[in-house]
Amino acid sequence: MQTLIENVNIVNPFEEIKTRQNVLIEDNLIKEISSTKIKADNVIDGEDNYLLSGFIDCHTHIFAKGFHKEENMANPLGLHFYNAVPHSLQTINAGVTTIRDCGSADLSFKLAQQRKLFTAPKIHLSITPLVMTGGHFDLLLPSGWDMEIIYPGFPKGRCDGIEEVLKKTREVKRAGADFIKVMASGGVLTTNTSPEFAQFNKKELKTIVCEAKANDMKVSAHCHSLKGMNNCIDAGFSSIEHGTFIDKKTAKRMVENDVSLVPTLLVHQFLYKNGFPAWDSYADEKTEKLKEIVKVHKENIQVAYEQGVNILMGTDSGVIPHGHNLEELVHLTDIGMSADEAIAAGTVKAAEFLGFNNLGLVRENYVADLVLVNSNPLEDVSILSNNENILKVVQDGCVVK
Fold first, then answer.
1. 299 and 281 in one domain?
2. Which EC number(s) does the record attach to this protein (predicted)?
């Protein structure tokens, strides 16, 4: 199948904009890009708008709707899956064609997307994060009720000690994970944990990495804690998510050890501005922890950027409502990144991190994941944060918006 998008201006990070171009798509690939006329049966008039690669959100939770324990208790399990349908459409409509899910989605979502059962971003799965007893996302409450969602094919994440973390890594891989996610510090959403404290010890972390690498899998750490980040660097992790308390020395170590950072600046700002539901029993505790994070997060991530850490776009959508994904680009420019750098963090740099060498740019022989927008994002990257400016979205050569 061929589709032609004609009369567009092509935007690739760090390149001159190519004006008045025609882009021929064959099946799921960009076959030809030319300023001269191309013939095709199916033609889309780009109307002199701007064509970019589809974006990659490197930190989402596509099944999640706030991670409210009360809802886990009250809702039928089926809603956990059905939530993914509107969340996926919101994500696509925001211009995101691929996501890296950092916990909650299972193999069923990946298969449903591949079989086109509903409109959804392509997914890179972690299944469920590994958590230590009493750590972030150990959802066994003081009452004795365990709020963790489990079902066949979705293993429980709790584990302690070398033998247990080894087995749990294997269980998560068996369930269909593309990478391993580890809760290496406390967090905002879990009661009785605090973001500044490290979780899991070095032997446990190294065991997880060793087993993952034996299966050619990367390991990612939810980590706010400075000590936790350094433990993960020592263990051989590939990425740090959030990185709230990072300092100059740790940033340099990340560069030296090729560890990427997904700062998720949007989520903390969004929660701080909008708060938690009035019925959330832990809202006050979460808000207090959030205040401490918001004070330092932006400044510390700016330090990491200045030290040359590889920064990728991620939003933590699912903790906050889906569909706001490209607002993260504005936050990335607020720490000093250029529009080119911010767009690259959500396209070609993210694709490279996920192991794709033909994704993230508008080029011949690249995957036809594309976004058509109504003005030049290199002049004002904030236009991408308004979904009304996202005119069309193409995924694997098919128009999905």
1. yes
2. 3.5.2.7
State which residues form the domain around 383.
2-53+360-399
72 and 174, same domain (yes or no): yes
Average pLDDT, the chain: 94
pLDDT band, very low/low/confident/very high, at 142 (cuts 50, 70, 90)? confident
What tens digit of pLDDT does each residue of 44-69 get? 999 999 999 999 999 999 999 987 77
pLDDT digit string, tens, across residues 329-349? 999 999 999 999 999 999 999
Query: Looking at residue 290, what is its pLDDT?
Result: 76
The CATH number that applies at residue 37 is 2.30.40.10
CA dist 133 to 68, 138, 158, 225, 369, Å? 20, 6, 6, 18, 41
Q: What is the rounded CA–CA span in Å between residue 253 and residue 93?
A: 37
Same domain, 23 and 103: no
On whether both 45 and 60 belong to a single domain, the answer is: no
What are 146's strand-pairing partners?
A: 140
Residues sharing a CB contact under 8 Å with residue 155, sequence separation 6 or more, in sequence order: 127, 128, 168, 171, 172, 174, 175
Where helices occur in 335-385 by DSSP H, the ranges are 339-345, 348-354
pLDDT bucket at 282, cuts 50 / 70 / 90? low
User: CA 90 to CA 118: how far, in whole Å?
Assistant: 12
Question: How many whole angstroms separate alpha carbon 401 and alpha carbon 388?
Answer: 11
Spatial CA neighbour of 326 closest among 382, 268, 256, 258:
382
Q: Is 3 helix (H, G, I), strand (E, B) or coil?
A: strand
Statement to judge: residues 212 and 223 lie in one domain: yes
Instruction: From 303, 325, 347, give the residue that closes a domain.
Output: 325
Residues 321-335: what's their mean pLDDT? Answer: 97
